[in-house]
Amino acid sequence: MKMRKSEEKQKRLGWIRGLGNGLLAIVILCGLAMVVPGLFRIEMFNVVSGSMAPQIPVGSLIGVRYEAPETLQPGDVIAFLHRDSVVTHRVVANEKQNHELITKGDANAQEDMEPVAYTDLIGKVRFHVPVLGALFGWFSQMEGKIFLIALGTIGALLSMVPFGNNRN
User: Fold this and answer.
1) What local confidence, expressed as pLDDT, does residue 166 receive?
2) Residue 57 CB-density burial (10 A; 0-12 exposed, 13-18 middle, 19+ buried)
3) How many whole angstroms separate alpha carbon 25 and alpha carbon 23?
4) What percent of the chain has pLDDT above 70?
5) Taking the mean position of all CA atoms in its chain, how far away is CA 33?
6) Domain residue spans of the chain
7) How confident is the prediction for the chain on average, in pLDDT?
8) Distances in Å between the alpha carbon of 97 and those of 23, 74, 101, 112, 118?
């Protein structure tokens, strides 16, 4: 009978340590996901408007890599600066002689009123992941950073729970 209680305690402690290791893994994966794309010159942005819906919904995380503006083709999705904001729209035409791109959001009825100067191009959208943009946007704010630090601390503490006493 005593053996059974000991086994149950060991199972419970193992579950707690597993939870701690899982929390640590989540924090590490979030950190890597925020850092690794930069090693490949990919910038990450959070989509905050519905102009590209349903293709790229609000809250998506987009990965953008610079590409020479002259090489962009109609249909390519790009990110560019517009009045201190990052905008993601589709290229409708590349006016190479004027060094401008004509763009349009998929959900918009008309082309954008102002062409995008080549100098305002951030790059071509390489991928997008729904929902993660809002999450990563929150992680980049102070509250999100505090949350990740707390989650990592809790995970570390739980993973260090001893497996019992060494008495026989």
Assistant:
1) 47
2) middle
3) 5
4) 95
5) 7
6) 2-159
7) 92
8) 54, 16, 10, 19, 11
The pLDDT tens digits of the residues spanning 97-143 come to: 999 999 999 999 999 999 999 999 999 999 999 999 989 889 889 99
CA 27 to chain centre: 13
Q: What 8-state DSSP symbol labels residue 35?
A: H
Helix or strand or coil: residue 92?
A: strand
Reported pTM: 0.79
CA 55-56-61 angle, 5° bins: 150
Q: In the β-sheet with 42-46, what is the strand arrangement from edge to edge?
A: 42-46, 61-65, 121-129, 77-82, 85-95, 100-104, 116-117
Asked, as a colleague might, if the bond just before 54 is cis with ω within 30 of 0, I would say yes
Which amino acid, one-letter code, is at 38? G
Place of tokens 């991928």: 127
CA angle 145, 150, 153 (to 5 degrees): 125
How would CATH label the architecture of 2-159?
Answer: Ribbon (2.10)
Instruction: To the nearest 10°, report the CA torsion of 6, 7, 9, 12.
Output: 180
Q: Would the pLDDT of 164 be above 90?
A: no
